[in-house]
Amino acid sequence: MKNVAKFAALAALTLTVQMAWAQDTIKVGVIAAFSGPFADYGKQMEGGIKAYMSQYGDTVAGKKIQIILKDTTGPSPEIAKRLAQELVVRDKVDFLAGFGLTPEAMAVAPIAQQAKKPMIVMNAATSAVTTKSDYIARFSMTLPQISAPMATWAVKNKIKNVVTLVADYGPGIDAEAAFKAELVKGGGTVTEAIRVPLRNPEFAPFIQRIKDAKPDAVFVFVPAGEQSIAFMKGYRERGLAEAGIKVIATGDLTDDHVLPAMGDATLGVITTFHYSAAHKSPENAAFLKSFAAANPGGGRPNFMAVGAYDGMAAIYEVVRKLNGKIDGDQAMAVLKNIKLNSPRGPIAIDPATRDIVQTVYVRKVEKIGNEIYNVEFDQFTNMKDPGK
Ligand code: PHB
Asked: Do 44 and 171 share a domain, yes or no?
């Protein structure tokens, strides 16, 4: 064969192999922080994905599920956007997934819209996220969905005057507004509303302000992880508990993954949330087992791992229903009607908003044996985002 013919034959063969590979795989691009201060978000999601795939296999409708991880390094919209573009254009993914932080999800939404790629949100919890593209379905929570019940509980428990402290970006502002609306409805008052920077907040001066304001309680939303450890440390060190100021919060503050490291400082803290590792159900027992098996040394899974696990269940359901041929609009038609028995309890996607409907639990940090857990003691079933 002449060189040109040889080259053409080789090129044709390569193309055939590539096409066969492409036809045999479903690609899921996972965009999250895998490094920097929010690195645990990516690790938890990856852990949840691995748990799901170890439990249910890596092949659906005859297609291999391929996961491509992309590191945003943190709440950096430009990086998230570039990674999404690469995943769509170069890797030709069938699904975009992940999104621990709201700014990542907001930046990628226009790309999902333009490319008609189903975008599976596994955490990002600002209410408006799902309104930014018709191709988004959320498998985590929204801040208003979990914050309003905290205020309902506060009113019922005679907590009247509250200082709020939230991270100064989408989820924090949502939490502050939803908590306040519900508290005021029940006759309570937010006496001071404090917002702290998302990146590297210094809590000490704010904690002093809370102490000086002498409220019945402080309501807190900070993104899960290091910040919750820092807040609780300051709360104890400055003697707010002794001053009679309770902590009430969304469960991000007592996130299961960092709770063991926070130690006894958190005992008694009341939170509202969609997932606790201590949730008693066969589905959660199976999840905890497969998470541990698939992630040796990975510690306790948290709500982001569960969001990712459920997001994978949804992706598998779409692949099954569409028999392995993923079309954006058809995928959304399936996603809009998904109902799952999640490790957290029953969940459903509201077809009108593509947002999640689920049980929100009231929990108290307690010891079970020598271990610290969020123990559920009350619940709000079928909770929607109150603004939706
Ligand atoms: C978000 O950025 O949407 C976010 C991050 C961490 C949380 C909750 C929400 O714990």
From this structure: no
Q: How far is the CA of 125 from the centre of ligand 1 (A)?
A: 6
Whole-angstrom CA distances from 286 to 275, 300, 343, 368, 370 are: 15, 14, 8, 20, 22
Output the average pLDDT for the chain.
95
Q: How confident is the model at residue 55 (pLDDT cuts 50, 70, 90)?
A: very high
**Mutational test site, ligand 1, from 102, 169, 254, 303, max ligand atoms within 8 Å of CB:** 102
Structural domain harbouring 198: 144-273+361-383
Residue 223 CA, ligand 1 centroid: distance in Å:
5
Strand positions, DSSP E, the chain: 25-32, 59-60, 63-71, 95-98, 119-121, 136-138, 161-167, 189-196, 217-221, 246-250, 270-273, 339-342, 345-350, 355-368, 371-383
**Amino acid (one-letter) located at 381:** T
The pLDDT of residue 282: 98
pLDDT, tens only, 66-83: 999 999 999 999 999 999
Nearest CA to ligand 1 atom 8: 223
Q: Is the shortest distance between the CB of 234 and ligand 1 below 6 Å?
A: no
Domains contained in the chain, number:
2
Work out the average pLDDT over 296-319: 98
Same-domain status, 149 and 136: no
Output the pLDDT for position 12.
53
Q: Taking the complete model, does pTM exceed 0.85, yes or no?
A: yes
**232, 338: one domain:** no
Please report, for the domain that includes residue 255, its CATH number.
Answer: 3.40.50.2300
Whether 194 lines ligand 1, by a CB cut-off of 6 Å, is no
Q: Which ligand 1 atom lies nearest to the CA of residue 41? A: 6
Per-residue pLDDT reduced to its tens digit, 106-149: 999 999 999 999 999 999 999 999 999 999 999 999 999 999 99
Same domain, 261 and 191: yes
Residues 247 and 366 in one domain: yes
- Amino acid 291 reads F
Same domain? For 136 and 148 the reply is: no
Q: Which atom of ligand 1 is nearest to the CA of 171?
A: 3
CA of 138 to the centre of ligand 1 (A): 13
For residues 157 and 246, membership in a common domain is answered with: yes
